[in-house]
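Hi there, hope your week has been kind to you so far. For a while now I've been wondering how a particular protein folds. I'm sending you its amino acid sequence along with the C-alpha cells. Could you read through the record and tell me how the C-alpha cells relate to the sequence? Take your time with it, there's no hurry, and the full record follows here.
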Amino acid sequence: MFSSPMLHEVVQLFPPPARKRRLEGLYLGESLSPPAAGASADAPVLVYANFVTSLDGRIAVTDADGATRLPEGLTNPRDWRLFRELQAHADCLVTHGGYLRALASGSLGNVLQVGLGADGADIARWRTDRGMTAQPAVAILSASLDLPVPDSLAANRQPVCVLTTAAAPRDRVEALGKAGVEVVVTGPGPWVRGRDAVDVLAGRGCRRLYLQTGPRMLASALRDGVLSRLYLTISHRMVGGEHFDTMLRGGVLGEAGKVRLSALYLDEAADGGCGQLFACFETG
C-alpha cells in the first residue's frame, strides 16, 4: 500500500503544535475506553461513528437507475486503513438492513469482520494482544426485517442479533428465528431509535459500539444524546449530483447537534496529492 516514507505520514494540525504522525496505528492508538462507571447516566457505553464526506457534503449519490453508491474517488486505501483501525476497538459493530441488501447485491463490500487478510494482520494481533475476541458481535438495525444475513457472520462465529420495532412483520420475525437469528424489539417504531439500540446492547455487555450505519441513525444517536465520538474523513474534492445523501436525515437538531473538535490531521498524499482531512469530534 505504501511506497515512500511520506506515504506513511499525516500532519497533526490539532491539538497544536503541528507535527508529523504515522498513518498506520493512528487510530489504534486512540483512547476508546467507555466512561467510568457512574460517570454519566446518559453514556453507559462508548458509541462512535465514522463517515467520509466530500467538500460539498456528499456521502453517497444516487444513479439514474435509483441505485445508491459511494461517489467515485471519495474513499481510498488510506481512509480504509483508519476505518479498519476503528473497527478493532469495537465490542459490537452496528449495521443496518440497507447495508446487508447492498452487500448481497455486490454494490458494497464486506465490512463486518476485523483484521482479515494479510494487510490486516497487525489489526488482528492488536485485538488478541488485548484479550479481545477475534471478531466483534454484530447488531443489525431493521424496521422491515428485509435483510439477507451474510454467511460470513456464522463462518467467523460472530454473535448476531437483529434490533427492530413492534411494527416489524411477524412472518419475518418468525423466519429469522427459524434461521437461528435472534430478533429483539426495541421500541414502537417506526425506526429503531439510537437510545433504544444502545440500551439493548449495553444490557448485553457491549461497551464499545461502532456505528456502521447511515444518516438516520447518526441523527437519532445525536438527538438521543448517546453518541460519544464522531470520526470524519473530509475528501478534498467536490462531487455534485442532483440526488445524494448527507450525514444526517430528519428534523433540525439544534443544541443536540453541537460537537467539539478534539483532533485534526492533514493527509497530503491522498488522491493524487489533493489530500484529505481526518477529524475527530467529541459530543456532550
Remarks:
- The chain is about 20% helix and 25% strand.
- Residues 77-88 form the longest helix (12 residues).
- The two ends are 37 Å apart (CA to CA).
